[in-house]
Amino acid sequence: MDIMISIRNLSVIRDGLEVLQNIHADIRAGEIVAVIGPNGAGKSTLLKCLLGFLIYTGTITIFGKRPTHALDQIGYVPQRFTFDKNFPLTVAEFLRLSCDSQPAIKHALKEVEMDAYHDALLGRLSGGQLQRVLIARAIANSPKLLLLDEPTTGIDLGGEKDFYEIIAHQNQQHDVTIVMVSHEVNMVYTHATHVLCLNKSVCGMGRPNETLTRDVLELLYGRDTAIRDHEHHAHA
Known about the structure:
alpha/beta, Rossmann fold, globular, disordered C terminus
């Protein structure tokens, strides 16, 4: 498979602290890559570098271009989306802010099973429904790459299952490559083809069953958590 994202010697310093340190990684077309690690590991920072939002040293190429030159082929779902819930904006009007094709908007809503909410007010949606609309916004322009920052935060378990099914559909039916930040180690085994273990630097990368060894989990989360997570997976 072709390398879609190439990261070399990536480092980020924010407020005098090194948030990311000498990151090397390749992500290939068609993969679902989960970026995992503890709080403060630099996961969201890595995603923001891929979007060209932050200043960094080193090189990132996406489709052979600098991140800012590849944005037209990237969809993004942020970790938090805040807005005035009293503002009378419908789902369709919201999507039109980033996509001017009505057929594409209708198709994106259908993909996330939200076509019945075309004229619903954005501020009246549940957390899970809003998340689906954010995914619809991210896929409306038919991106080749989807970046998701802790996308299941605040969603109940049923909604979480639906979310992963939507992501798998995008990957399998539309050849969309997925990079998603997650704090759920057990999710990785079920839903990701590859895992990038991050704790300011790369602790491991590859297929989950080969990469998530006890040693790597210890580097990420400390000894007690690593063993607990490992045993939980073993019994699952």
